[in-house]
Amino acid sequence: MPEFDRFAPPHLDDPYPLYARLREGPPFFADAFGVWVVTRRADVKAVLSDPARFSSEFLIRTPMSPAPGVAETLATGHPEVFALLNQDPPEHTRVRALVAAAFSPRRVRALTPRVERLAGELVDAIAADGAADLIRSLALPLPLLVICELIGIPRADAPRVRGWIEQLKVLTSFGASDAEQVAAAHGSVEFERYLAALIAQRRAHGRDDLLTDVLRGDLTDLEIISLLITLIFGGHETTTNLIGNALLAALARPEGLPDDPDDVIERTLRADPPVQGTFRRTVADTELGGAPIPAGAQLYAALGAANHDPDGSAEPHLAFGRGIHYCVGAQLARVEARIALRTLATRLPGLRAADGFRVSYPANLLHRGPIRLAATWPVP
Ligand code: HEM
């Protein structure tokens, strides 16, 4: 069995040579993570394209103490942390139809001037300083403010939402202490209560926002809460990391940031995707790329590895997944990244990485993006 020491140096900073070696063999079981690692493009595609064989209902459960009303429903078969992402057909199909309508190109287009305004405000706030961490001052707040606005969460509440997301991260990752988990569980109950109150408000007074659209469907409040959490969680750090990875790529060029960043963004999605992999569970004993895999096994479909497979270099990248779970926010993410890079290029001419800046990445199988990005620019 090959070793999947993904968080050891030098793989944490640059996993792509490791992926290249792993693609030479079939899927294998990685003890350290308890998952089967799938790296070849054809195998990753097969996994993502066949929800009947590879279920999204994998077994990550939030150990939260549920808010009033939540416990009963959890007990009656709503164990997923994330609606949509962790659902299979037919439930997935029903929820997805609702969300896809709410994420219509019209709504994303209508959001563009607001994304521009928000990016402008964030960049203007640091312009006179001549130096900043671009993750903290732009890449992190921009997608958060955008997803809040899209859903219809008041801007003043964005910092609290950010805190709750941090707590959800504690609950969905390994290694947190009991005390941290308890604090995070309290936070996530608070988050649910907050969202329940928002839903009640919106039921009383509809507006032109995503939440109002979703309320027109036949989802229960609990399903809507779960869906909002998916959207907030899924639409935030992913986009932060796309902006971060694309900025790193752009700033590495001698000419710096391009006026038209679309090309850098698309190449980043292929070469250094913000979501490095996604999980599935085998429904029955199966065979994949020459490896026999037992029923109930967890699979890690390594999108970052598949994107570099020379066998698929002429095909579309898999950064947003593929098949029925294809990222519903892909268009929005591209719009946000484009506006972030363009705003920096036009408002901070001469922007470059700070002298001595060294990029580092969190140890995470899902997300990949720079923890900080120290940059400088000339101030008149
Ligand atoms: C699904 C990546 C931005 C919402 C996915 C999947 C990937 C992905 C790989 C498929 C997961 C799977 O098959 O298991 C990304 C990346 C983003 C991004 C790289 C940014 C660069 C967003 C944004 C939103 C969003 C901005 C929402 C505002 C979702 C949702 C799903 C999803 C709801 C689940 C769709 C389903 O299960 O049907 N995303 N995403 N994502 N994404 Fe994104």
From TrEMBL:
PROSITE patterns: CYTOCHROME_P450. One of its GO terms (molecular function) is monooxygenase activity. One of its GO terms (biological process) is antibiotic biosynthetic process. Keywords: Heme, Iron, Metal-binding, Monooxygenase, Oxidoreductase. InterPro entries: Cyt_P450_B (IPR002397), Cyt_P450_CS (IPR017972), Cyt_P450_sf (IPR036396). Belongs to the cytochrome P450 family. This is Cytochrome P450. It comes from Catenuloplanes atrovinosus. The lineage of its organism: Bacteria, Bacillati, Actinomycetota, Actinomycetes, Micromonosporales.
